[in-house]
Design brief:
This protein has 106 residues and is mainly α. Helices cover 49% and strands 10% of the residues.
């Protein structure tokens, strides 16, 4: 199974930054490489860029007979793991957990 990726994937990124024709060319290349194992990935967070990309991906899906798959980012499985994930984000961003969210964090 091969997914087209979120907004940073080749096809969505081309829709947003280069053009739909180039994005469609990329889709055709991916479909030729992976056939029925290739899926166009959509996420729904009601963000402007995401809504624009999803509309185009749905059109591409119908036009090129490529299946859609709905995904979402998952960073941990259990609620009790949220603190460990927060610590990793703080290390990545050079922040302290004591920093209030919105003041350099989150």
């Amino acid at each position: 199974m091969v997914l087209s990726g979120n907004l940073y994937g080749e096809i969505p990124s081309k829709i947003l930054n280069i053009g739909e024709n180039q994005a469609e060319e990329a889709l055709i290349w991916w479909k030729e490489q992976f056939g029925d194992d290739f899926y166009l990935e959509v996420m729904r967070h009601n963000q402007e860029d995401e809504n624009r990309v999803n509309k185009t991906l749905i059109e591409f899906s119908k036009k090129h007979d490529v299946k859609l798959i709905a995904t979402n980012n998952t960073y941990y499985l259990n609620k009790e793991d949220a603190n460990a994930h927060d610590i990793l984000l703080c290390v990545k961003d050079g922040e302290k957990q004591a920093t209030p969210i919105g003041r350099g964090r989150g």
